[in-house]
Amino acid sequence: MKRKSILLVIMMFAVALTGCGQSKSEKNSEYYGEIIAGLGDEEQFAIEDIGEKNDVLFVADATYDDGLAHNAAMYCDVYYAVDGEAYDLGRIESMGTAYPVSYGKKCIYTASEHTLEIYVIDAPNHRLLLKEQYEAVYGEGDEISYRRLQGDKEESIPAEEYLKIYEEYGQSTVVDFGYGASR
Questions:
Q1: Number of H helices, E strands in the chain
Q2: What is the dihedral of CA 70, 119, 128, 44, to 10 degrees?
Q3: Could you tell me the sign of the dihedral formed by the alpha carbons of 50, 56, 111, 70, in that order?
């Protein structure tokens, strides 16, 4: 009996220690509990810290192995908690498995072979904002020009700037989806 009591105390101590070191994602997960509980059998989610006040919930119904140990997605729904309530900010989409949805500091990326979009969270208005879009524009022959769109503003940019933003995307963190038990 004494041996069982000691074992029980040790187990409780171990559980207490692991709880003390909760990551931010684990602390924010209560905001998304109802959404996660309502997911279908094939839906997967990720709760990621992108540098905002709260973590972001990403939900996808189709993922793929990106070859780098991630369950990546080309499209997903994005949720964000404001004042303890989770809001659906909308769906974002990349165009092809070579361009998984990813995130950087306070931003979310989607891309295709010739475009790159950078989204930010507009928490007061419960929505995603397309902060910038970069495009490679192909003319006749081999001519390529590059442009950046910000709201209604469109400007030509040098190739170096376009390549730099794609490099940022390449160094961003792929959203890694999983099922409830694997999270």
A1: 4, 13
A2: -10
A3: positive
**Residue 32: domain span:** 25-175
Is residue 57 domain-resident? yes
pLDDT digits (tens, 9 = 90+) for 153-162: 999 999 999 9
C-beta separation of 149 from 137 below 8 A: no
Distance CA 121, CA 131 (A): 9
- CA 122/CA 155 separation, integer angstroms: 24
Q: Which of 81, 79, 85 has its CA nearest to residue 108?
A: 79
What pTM does this model have? 0.82
**Rounded to whole angstroms, how far apart are CA atoms 51 and 73?**
21
pLDDT under 50: residue ranges of the chain: 1-25, 27, 181
DSSP for 1-43, please give it.
-HHHHHHHHHHHHHHHHHHHT--HHHHHGGGGHHHHHT--TT-
Question: For the chain, what is the domain count?
Answer: 1
Listed residue (119, 105, 34, 124) closest to 76, CA to CA: 119
Establish if 135 belongs to a structural domain: yes
What does the alpha-carbon distance between residue 101 and residue 175 come to, in Å, rounded to a whole number?
A: 6
**Helix (H), strand (E) at residue 167:** helix 159-170
